[in-house]
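Quick one, T. Sequence first:
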Amino acid sequence: MVELQNFLNAPRTVSLGENVIAELINTKCMYVLLHGVEVCPLRKSHIESLQFAVNGCFMKIFDTMCKETVYECTDVFGCFAVSNIVKQMKSKFLHRFILLKKGADLYDQFVSVAERELAAL
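Structure tokens:
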């Protein structure tokens, strides 16, 4: 929860232009916010909560309460939707995990689960 609060307060602590702050969010904050989600099973509500945090951050940056403005700004600055980033990270993790090929019985069970999850993406 502390990470989420730090993420939301980050724009207040920096007095840079909107484009610089948006770029910092893209390159640094998003991956800090999403660290480790590729190994966790996430429900739709979890992803929506993470997207809400990102939207709130952009609302503060651009001083707006309009969701359409936030969506437009995230498109302009190349900030992908949290759901897409999570899918990309999870896919990369599962591909790497499957390629390990350890050969133990327990590992084989996890590989079959990983393959099912990968197919579901």
